[in-house]
Amino acid sequence: MRRILNRKRVIKAFAVNLVLVCLISIMLAPMAYAAETVDVTLTVQQVFTTDGLSSPPGDTFTYRLTPITTNAPMPLNNDSEYYVFTISGSGEVQIGLSFRASGIYSYELRCVSDERTDYTIDRRVYTIEVHVIDNSEVLLIYLNGENKVADLLFRHSYRTPNVPPVTPNPPPGTPWIPPVTINPTPVTPSPPPDIPNPSPSVPAPPSDIPNTSPGDPTPPPGKPDLPSDKPSLPPDAPASSSGGRGGYAPKTGDDSNPALWITLIAVSGVLLILLFWTALRLMWKRRWRS
User: Fold this and answer.
1) Residue 113's closest CA among 49, 163, 46, 68?
2) Cα–Cα distance for residue pair 33/103, rounded to 1 Å
3) Given this model, what pLDDT does residue 34 score?
4) Higher pLDDT, 271 or 206
5) Is 147 helix (H, G, I), strand (E, B) or coil?
6) Tens of pLDDT, residues 219-235
7) 87 near 60, Cβ under 8 Å?
8) Are 140 and 131 in contact (CB under 8 A)?
9) Where are the beta strands (DSSP E) in 112-247?
10) What is the Cα–Cα distance from 197 to 181, expressed in whole angstroms?
């Protein structure tokens, strides 16, 4: 009986130990070493632009890669607290990392160049996460710890300063003459003098030239009186707007009276209407009788 009880105790102890070993193995699984080394390459790109007016004094910028996770591998098996490198102009640098154990490794990348006059330096901070699981890796890049991006890219620019022109020094022995600033006074143009507008005047005819206007029948002196074809006007005829005497018209050779012709046309029209009406009445009466 005692043997049976001892066997049951041994089996229970073995089961408890087996459960504990399984739990410990599950908890330590992320810290297990990978069977092979996993290599990851980080590509850092730099774009440098200028306004094209002059050559910049420098185009090299410094970057620093800092591990956030403890015991995270560094490039070139470097055991320092951070890795520093530079990029010139528009180019890129590749950083190699070798991971021998599974886990999640985090890094921080930023530009640490000093401020420069007339330069615009990209101060963005990238957070890099490398997930190493079963001999494979997953690379995640975050910008400022929030937005996920695809590339490690920095953009810098240079702008030519507005430098005033330099005045050359005079040769030795030349007396120094201070510059004179002349403020030109605006000149207001004076208005032109009032010039009277001359009205076109017609010169008067000489006194010895007789007036030969069409309305003057008097011939010039020294010429005989010629008979005129114009009809003589009565002296008491009023003047009209057309230049002649009102109520008086020149003869045209037509002695017919227009009023008489109008009266004859009207009477003929009335007679034609009466004849047409009488013919219609007779025609209707004949049809009525028949």
Assistant:
1) 46
2) 9
3) 46
4) 271
5) strand
6) 555 555 555 555 555 55
7) yes
8) yes
9) 119-120, 126-133, 136-143, 147-149, 152-158
10) 46
| 204/72 Cα distance (integer angstroms) | 120
pLDDT at 42 over 70: yes
Instruction: Identify residue 62 by its one-letter amino acid code.
Output: T
Tokens encoding 106: 């985090």
3-state secondary structure of 16: helix
Burial of 106 (0-12, 13-18, 19+ CB in 10 A): middle
Question: Which regions of the chain does DSSP assign to beta strands (E)?
Answer: 33-50, 60-67, 83-88, 91-101, 103-111, 119-120, 126-133, 136-143, 147-149, 152-158
Instruction: Give the burial string for 215-246 (b: 16+ CB within 10 Å, else e).
Output: eeeeeeeeeeeeeeeeeeeeeeeeeeeeeeee
User: Of 36-45, 153-162, 251-260, 265-274, which gets the smallest average pLDDT?
Assistant: 251-260
Whole-model pTM above 0.85? no
Please identify which residue in the block is written with the tokens 């240079």: 158
Q: How many CA atoms lie within 13 A of 197 on its CB side?
A: 1
Distance CA 190, CA 186 (A): 12
pLDDT at 23: 65
Q: Which amino acid is at 226?
A: L
CATH code of 33-158, in short, is: 2.60.40.3050
Contact of 45 with 149, CB cutoff 8 Å: no
d(CA 130, CA 194): 93
Phi, psi (rounded to 5 degrees) for 96: -100, 135
Give the Cα separation of 42 and 94 in Å (integer): 6
Half-sphere exposure of 21 (CA within 13 A, CB side): 6
Enter the tokens of residue 181.
């600033």
Q: Burial, 158: exposed, middle or buried (Cβ in 10 Å; 0-12, 13-18, 19+)? A: buried
